[in-house]
Amino acid sequence: MTAPIPRDIPDLPAIPGKPALKPSPVPATAVVAPLPRPAAAAFRLLVALAAAAGVTLEVLLGDPSRTLGYFAIQSNILLALVMALSARRAWTAGRPLPGAVLGATLLYVAIAALVHHLLLMNEASPFSLTGEAAAAPTGWQAVAHHTLHTLTPIAAVLDWLLLTAPGRLHLRQAGAWLLYPLAYLAFSLTRGELLLPGTPDRYLYPFLDVGQDGYKKVLGNALLLGLSFYALAILLVALDHARPNPPRYRWKTGFRL
Length: 257
Description:
Elements: H1 38-61, H2 64-67, H3 71-91, H4 99-120, H5 139-162, H6 171-177, H7 179-194, H8 210-242
Helix pairs in contact: 1-3, 1-5, 3-4, 3-5, 4-5, 6-8, 7-8
């Protein structure tokens, strides 16, 4: 026989504290389908076109074998590719590119802009350009120059601040981002060794000019710059976790409220 059901159920003791919801392992995109972001796609496409146009002008107006060796040119080629892919994914409501790729691209174009404005074009810098290299460009050369060293870096920062979700960069990625500048250092020194002494632009940057300063000073310059680049990478990661979330786009839930 079963026990009779009591008419009066005693009060249960209250659960101490406020109930907390546990994080769900199911991603939000599995429940809510994202919408296309045409404004973000249009902005990123414009940035990609600007970077590609600047690189194309530099190559057409100069010596391609020399022009393509500059760090600013290579970083803008990467920016054009990444922004074009990001624009396509924003237009088709696809998953955004990995944060490591976006962070590396942002770091490289920021390095190119800071080195250009703070070291090469700054008369107070010990590495400022002299002679014909220091002359202000004119015509289409000026358009390409300002596009690659000022316009596209600012646009990349704006895209990161206003159109990209925060918290996607991680400190462990900062060291890996420096592999490309390290590879560029090896490329620059090898290129200089292969060219004959006295060749114009044998070393593309004055702080990497082994013929003038020797390997000891050049490697010292590279070490100081590498530490500065690593500090900049850490700063980007810290800002990525401290900055507010950009305006979110409305999502379709399938429910009528």
